[in-house]
Amino acid sequence: MAAMDTPTTTEETDRRHESVTRDNGRASKGPITPITPITPSTPLTPITPVAPGSGRLRPLGLDEVRITGGFWARRRHVNATATLAHCHDWMERVGWTGNFRAAAEGRSHRDRRGREFADSEIYKLLEAVAWQAAGEPGGDPGGTPGVDVTELIEAVVSAQHPDGYLNTAFGGPGQQPRYSDLEWGHELYCHGHLIQAGVAQARARGEDELVKTARRAADHVCATFGRGGIERVCGHPEIEPALVELARLTGEQRYLDQAALFVDRRGRGTLADPEFGRAYYQDDLPVRQATVLRGHAVRALYLAAGAVDVAVETGDDALLAAVERQWEATVARRTHLTGGMGSHHRDESFGDDFVLPPDRAYSETCAGVASVMLSWRLLLATGEPRYADLAERTLLNVVATSPADDGRSFFYANTLHRRHRGGPPSGDTVSPRADSGSRAPWFAVSCCPTNVARTLAQLPAYLATKDDRGVQLHQYADAEITTFLAGGHRVALRVRTGYPSGGNVTVRIGRSPDRPWTLSLRVPAWTDGATAWLTGPDGTRRAVPPGTARVTRVFRPGDEVRLDLPMTPRWITADPRVDAVRGTVAVQRGPLVYCAESVDLPAGRDVEAIRVDTSAEPEDGPHGDGGTVVVPGELTAPDGVRAAPWPYRPLGGLPAARSAEPAGIVLVPYHSWANRGPSTMRVWLPTTTPTTTPTPAPTSAPKPRTTDNGR
Asked: How many Cβ atoms sit within 10 Å of the Cβ of residue 187?
């Protein structure tokens, strides 16, 4: 390395699949070092939902990263000004907020409203409000327009039992006893969301009554489910990551120990066998033995996130490796093109390997949120960019798809093929979870709106990290970043980008120490097969493959590093083992998946009439900004396929006559579909000629045939 006073530049690129040496300095299991004591009105740093004590990367807090414009700034603004109040208003309307007063007054058996897990929605709203305000300059973490946080907290506090138990569905006069239905009661799940709300409030404001209430609830859980207590688990994981984060906040070892107990107890058959099988709530195999995520998708992902937290804080490399293997197998065989997870409507679960039907894709919004939670934790633990790749895909194509442009209606499930237009849901009643071609304002099971709200609120915390060498950018948005490097050296960065529709990312140095440090930028995996370019402060431009591009030098104020990513639309084909999409292709531009909508077709035509021609490449629409993509193809005439009494025919038989006309098919970003009213939609598009995909070689020679007599 050159002398400190001589500016030098080193540009290095780590390929995506190169092995990453883990930090062997992870703390071994032992007491967590307490951080800043909790004092009233004193925020705790870092102001971030996940603050691991070890690992490869350290997250930057909401006080260090501010999103200033573009795609995500618009959505966070809508979240702050519309979605949070919308969630609060609906929970008032359906009676969920009133459940706490009813519990405090002993009338829950008569007056309680909503499902057994309704308490958790109030907790997620409180968490979202804390993170949203903490990420706004000059924002008051104590409130947001349309949400009286003080009143909500007072109601929650009033319902807590003297021993710390808090649930409005169990344990009161005339109700089922506490923990009498661990399979479906969601009591520990609700406690987990209460604790996460308390952690958010503590990090955003300092200790208040919500924080104290959350700690009392955690103490109750430890006393009740610790060694010698109830040696079972909750049917819905969530308490595990919550307890670990509380341990990180307070330095209390017992919370970490209890989280580790819950992780180790899972898969031991302590829950009753449900109609869906024990895999539904991951009670079929211990976490360390499982090879792929299975069962209810949200449950599986929350459990995996908690297992990563436990592994990182206890130095359990074997547990971390087990979750990494599960993530790899799930991404390779059980994940939709959008990053969505979950193929079964009946039990909201993962399907078998490669069972990914687009028209039956469940891809629950909450599973998308949980997937981002897991990927973020794995990124912090290992530093591997593949985890940020999946988080990006999921954020842009699942999480961003759920809320409408106005932030007041949502998709619960995220199908990839909508066959029937349907009508708009009623604005006055709750809707079924997955039964509409339009977003609904509220659901009988409304876990997704508040999950979207808290994810958008904490989004700045997912953009960047740091380590002893410098700063890493993982997600791209207009942002201002200020942090301190090792030795207390302050760094200030300004990021400008047109992402995700534009591929240019420019990082301008505002402040830098007079010593070398490293700025790292993720080069997304989707650039494979194209060329991304990195330009350093000295003007040198070079091609960079997928992975991490690094610039190491003594930066000066005004220096710029520019990453140019290829945004040409391209055809995507699936692994031939995904039977449901054989003979079809999809289109992706940059990180965004595109779809066809019936509103862009001539009158009387539907998405079922589309055939695309893959002999020519997709092109940007007339504005060239990614708002639309146009693909060559044809549209079958409304009467172009004759009705047949039987939909099957001998191979080689003449197909029904078909008339079609050439057409340029307009596609829009998948996240924007159904914002123009009810429509049909599809992501995977049939081709005018059969697509060719490699056929896997047979694994063995066929066995000889035998007759009934064994010959």
From this structure: 26
